[in-house]
Amino acid sequence: MAAPLDGNNGGQMDQSFQSIVVRNSRGMDMLQTTKDAGRLYIQGDAIGSGSHEKIALATVESDSIVMEMTERGKVPEKGMPRFMGEIMASVMGTIGPKGINFARYSIDYHILRNYLHILDEWGEARAKKSMPKYASEIVEKYLEDEKFSILKESILSKKLK
User: Fold this and answer.
1) pLDDT in tens, 56-100
2) What are the residue boundaries of the structural domains of the chain, listed by start?
3) Is the pTM of this model over 0.85?
4) Is the dihedral of CA 105, 91, 58, 83 positive or negative?
5) Which of 27, 50, 78, 139 is deepest in the core (most CB within 10 A)?
6) Which of 151, 145, 110 is nearest to 131 (CA)?
7) Alpha carbons 46 and 18: distance in angstroms, whole number
8) Is the dihedral angle over the CA atoms 32, 33, 36, 38 positive or is it negative?
């Protein structure tokens, strides 16, 4: 998923630790085969800090694509000014999730946005059939939150019009 940006390895990407997300038993088998062949060294489980769920949901709610899908208004493509983006990045780097929790945030955000997209395109029945189990489990967890349920329902009600 990522290589740390540190100067300790002379900038060599192949000398930096990477993160791997294993989503199912087949992925675990592939990982084990790679380790057994001596092609992969695993240092240990990744660590992190900070909660990722609330920021993932807030990012989905403010996503321009989601806003369009839920008919909360067309958002201009331009985006925020660069200096504001730099301020936001600095704040997020300070108070946001770190390490493995940043990876969890990124994965959850993209799964939630993609779920809403397939819900919008195909409807609920086909969306459920199309999602892998790991994605369905993440979506189900967020559907317990009223804000995400409202996003889902606004997309479904739009389809009924």
Assistant:
1) 888 888 887 888 888 766 655 666 788 887 887 788 777 788 888
2) 1-46, 48-160
3) no
4) negative
5) 139
6) 110
7) 10
8) negative
